[in-house]
């Protein structure tokens, strides 16, 4: 196991070959079967309370778990390219791309909506979050 990450009720592990194994409650992201075929070459996993986000070797991001807690990234899917790092609050994710821009998704009240400051989110090197 290369990395182990947890939500409030599930675990996700990156194995040596870059694949992912998840277990425990499906409500908390413990069932990744819907995206399992995409979980190859995983570099990093981050978690909210009920969802996971995985950065793949090509810089794309795969998400699963509770949609309102960041498990559904379809609204920003096209922007999730060249991702270097993902950070999480309790119900939202923020991804830093190679160009220093930031993409957010998940619960708006937890930081999932950054449109009001998007023009200021340039040349970002690090994002930190607290529960």
Explain the layout of strands and helices:
Elements: E1 3-6, E2 10-14, E3 20-24, E4 42-47, E5 51-56, E6 61-65, E7 83-88, E8 92-97, E9 102-106
Antiparallel strand pairs: 1-2, 2-3, 4-5, 5-6, 7-8, 8-9
Structural class: mainly beta
Give the helix tally: 0
Query: How far apart lie the N and C ends?
Result: 26 Å
Shape: globular
Mean pLDDT, to the nearest integer, reads 94
Uncertain segments are none
Helix content: under 10%
Provide keyphrases for this structure.
single chain, 131 residues, mainly beta, three-stranded antiparallel β-sheet, 0% helix
Overview of the structural elements:
The chain is an all-beta fold and 131 residues long. Helix content is 0%, strand content 37%. It has no helices and nine strands. The protein has strands spanning 3-6, 10-14, 20-24, 42-47, 51-56, 61-65, 83-88, 92-97, 102-106. The strands form three sheets. The chain has a three-stranded antiparallel β-sheet, with no helix packed on it. A three-stranded antiparallel β-sheet has the order 4-5-6, with no helix packed on it. A hairpin with a 3-residue loop joins strand 7 (83-88) and strand 8. It is globular. The mean pLDDT is 94.
